[in-house]
Amino acid sequence: MFVLVDVYFVPRKICLNPVGYVQTDAVGKEINNKTVVSKIVFDEEYLEALQGIEDFSHLFVIFWLHETSEKNRKNLKIHPCGRADLPLVGLFATCTPYRPNPIGLTRVKLLDVRGTVVTVQGLDAFDGTPVLDIKPFDHYEKTSDFKIADWWKQIIKRKKKEEKRLR
Amino acid sequence: MFVLVDVYFVPRKICLNPVGYVQTDAVGKEINNKTVVSKIVFDEEYLEALQGIEDFSHLFVIFWLHETSEKNRKNLKIHPCGRADLPLVGLFATCTPYRPNPIGLTRVKLLDVRGTVVTVQGLDAFDGTPVLDIKPFDHYEKTSDFKIADWWKQIIKRKKKEEKRLR
User: Fold this and answer.
1) Which residue in A has a C-alpha nearest to residue B145's C-alpha?
2) A160-to-A28, A143, A165, B121, B144 alpha-carbon distances in Å
3) Tens-digit pLDDT profile for chain A (167 aa)?
4) CA-CA distance, B110 to B59, in Å (whole number)?
5) Cα–Cα distance for residue pair A128/A117, rounded to 1 Å
6) Helix/strand/coil for A32
7) For chain B, where do the domains classified as CATH 2.40.30.70 start and end?
8) Does domain B15-66+102-139 have CATH number 2.40.30.70?
């Protein structure tokens, strides 16, 4: 008799505890402004684990998009940024917060480290957002030769226009 | 009477379900080779969610380092890459898999999308690794002006030497 078995002996459910939380005065759309300064307040137990991060200028922050509700995560295809003029694409081709696992990933500029408080610039996360991990950014993450979707270029174009207007 | 309340009304524990799993023939140290080709096999339910990713050349893959055991995650400071000649630094300053939340993050080259099977190059994840999310890579993630720790430069130097030797 043959039986089908799951070849991957790993838990189907993965549980995490935040290592810290975001503190920011920015509200609403302000959080998308790349000049926004926020603090990541780590749990006291991670004081030692932060030693040496000041030697890097940029970090990746991995956080939990806790403001997205499960019922908002039902659509598999979306119009990027909610713009009807852009094509309907799969959510994995976008950075929508409404993802099966609502994990946020942003590269930020490191401004200051004081004890367990890490001040960063450019973190698009609301006040109270649970932080899951941070990682140093190195040049291995650079690429000069890459391709992005045409609709993504339209978003960048509009972003740049708005940034220019705000200057 | 005053009572202390948690100002962040978010769950302290966050639970996730993998969206797919890694398939690779690479074993041991082979997975760190940037030329390694792997497949990410997504759950069938995410077929539609993948539409449009083929318009990008590179993706970020966020995965669960399921081979790290909890007892290996006790050290807050480590010698990067286990090299005693490098300084003892906080784990958040490194890419060690032994992190409070063992989340892996790698930028990969997208080679092919066929149904729910996404073929990528440069994913340093073992066979059977649960994948939590993928995100498109865009030029907003580039920086020309950045700083990394001196010990990190030593690791890059050795990596480059090894890559040269393997060519």
Assistant:
1) A57
2) 19, 21, 9, 31, 18
3) 444 444 444 556 899 999 999 999 999 888 888 889 999 999 999 999 999 999 888 899 999 998 887 777 789 999 988 888 889 999 999 989 999 999 999 999 999 999 999 999 999 999 999 999 999 987 555 556 667 788 878 877 887 887 778 77
4) 7
5) 14
6) helix
7) 15-66+102-139
8) yes
Q: Do B143 and A58 touch (CB under 8 A)?
A: yes
CB interface of A with B, residues 20-59, below 8 Å:
21, 46-53, 55-58
CA dist A111 and A123 (Å) reads 12
Residue in chain B nearest A132 by alpha carbon: B101
Buried b / exposed e across B12-47, counting CB within 10 Å, b at 16+? eebebebbbbbbbebeeeebeeeebbbbbebeeebe
At residue B91, what is the residue type?
L
Our CA-based measurement puts residue A40 at a distance from the nearest CA of chain B, in whole angstroms, of: 13
| ipTM at complex level | 0.86
Concatenated DSSP letters of B74-85? --SEE-GGG-TT
Alpha-carbon span A55 to A80, nearest angstrom: 36
